[in-house]
Structures are given as structure tokens and as C-alpha cells.
Amino acid sequence: MKSVTISEFRANLLKYLKNAQNGEQVSVTSRGTPLATLSPPVSQHNNAKARLKNLAKTATIHDVVSPIEDSWEAMK
Predict the structure, then answer these.
(1) What is the DSSP letter of 66?
(2) Which domains are present in the chain?
(3) Is 0.85 surpassed by the pTM of this model?
């Protein structure tokens, strides 16, 4: 992760925003103290896809259409 001072960040804001868009993280500091971290945008679509993929590994699919052995009042 690249670290830059606040004055450097202000002077070259567009450059650092483009770097973040391309996947680079930038830490902004003031007198050596970290103020913020600029990181690439998070794709909610990709995150959801990855979570579903992980769930699919442990999912068990059962027949949810056929009635069970118990009789229901609505089926009488």
C-alpha cells in the first residue's frame, strides 16, 4: 500500500483516484499519522456472487414440491 501526505494527496487527487480505481490502495497521512485509506470500489454484484458460490458448496437440495406423508387440513 502506498502512503502519501495530505498535501501530496490534495495536489494529485485525480491521479490517486485513478490509481484506486485500478486496484491500488493509498494511505493518506498527516504528520505521519494515518487519516484515511483510499481503496478500489467494492462490487456488490461480485461479492453477492462469491457468497452464493460459497453457500452452494454446503447446500442440500430436497424435493419441496411433493407433499410429505402427513396430511394437511387444506388437502382434505
Answers:
(1) S
(2) 2-58 (3.40.1620.10)
(3) no
